[in-house]
Amino acid sequence: MLTYHWASTMRYRLGNSTAKSFYTENTVFPSAGMWGSCEMISSHCVSMAIGTNNANHSDWGLEVARMYLNHRIDAKRMTPSMTCSLADWKNNTDALFVGSDSQAQVSVRAAHDDGYVYLLAERLDDVLTDGDECVFYIAGDAGYPSVSVRAGLRSVLEVIVNSSVSSRTAADVSSVKYSSVTAAGGQITELAIPKWLFSCPEDAVRVNVVLRNNDGDGTIEDTMSGTSVSQIATWKKVVLK
Ligand SMILES: [Ca+2]
């Protein structure tokens, strides 16, 4: 990542894997500022900060943003205990992130073993209600069949298997395992999705996440920028290690 100031605005460009070319310029803080800084938090997360002041230079402030990079992540081979234990996932920290349209946000990690793909969703949400949901989409890298799992705060609400495996039975789709716990500032959910349910390939899957936040006054739906639920090719690639 290349960061710089131009016209009093902090800007950044993401580089390619060899850092020899850089993509489109972006800005984090629309207001003018100075002394911008950027610090890596993890392989997919950076913090950025900028100093700001008013026209008279008498009222200094600090703007801080935490930014998550959504691109290909790795799903390590492991079998979590399905108790929402973060200790199970301590060496598996790649994550996808959703959370720009409301105060709620969710990061999603993935793992797999011979039988299942596991998803760990850590939801930060100041107001947990019965309307709070996430929908997790998964498919093979080549496309259909796909599975969507709509999960609430206490249970799986709906599992849909699309396309060529419409013959899946209710018992088949109920084979998705679910676990959740209320955690500080939100909730943790763990899912185990049988690989046979969507004919999981050996090398990689595609994942998308829709976050539905309800704080008692309507639902706001959010997903990863650049993705479309109806286009599997836009879902984020998750490599099965
Ligand atoms: Ca909520």
What is the CATH topology descriptor of the largest domain? Immunoglobulin-like
Secondary structural class: mainly beta
* Percentage of residues in DSSP E strands: over 45%
Biggest sheet statistics: 12 strands, mixed
Question: Which segments are poorly predicted (pLDDT under 50) over 5 or more consecutive residues?
Answer: none
H/I helix tally: 1
- Cα distance spanning the termini: 26 Å
Radius of gyration: 20 Å
Strand and helix order: EEEEEEEEEEEEEHEEEEE
Q: What would the principal axes of the Cα set say about the shape?
A: globular
For the record, the CATH class of the largest domain is Mainly Beta
Instruction: Name the average pLDDT.
Output: 89
Strand segment count: 18
Q: What ligands can be seen in this structure?
A: calcium ion
* CATH architectural category of the largest domain: Sandwich
The proportion of residues forming helix, as a percent range, comes to under 10%
Please tell me the total number of domains.
2
Describe what you observe in this structure.
With 241 residues, the protein is an all-beta fold. It folds into 2 domains: 2-68, no CATH class; 73-240, Immunoglobulin-like. It is built from 1 helix and 18 strands. The chain has one helix spanning 170-173, and strands at residues 2-6, 9-13, 26-27, 34-42, 45-52, 61-68, 73-77, 96-98, 105-112, 116-124, 133-140, 143-151, 156-161, 177-183, 186-194, 204-214, 219-223, 236-240. The longest helix is centred in the last third of the chain and has 4 residues, at 170-173. It is globular and about 70 Å long. The model has no long low-confidence stretch (mean pLDDT 89). The chain binds calcium ion. The site of calcium ion has 9 residues, from strand 16.
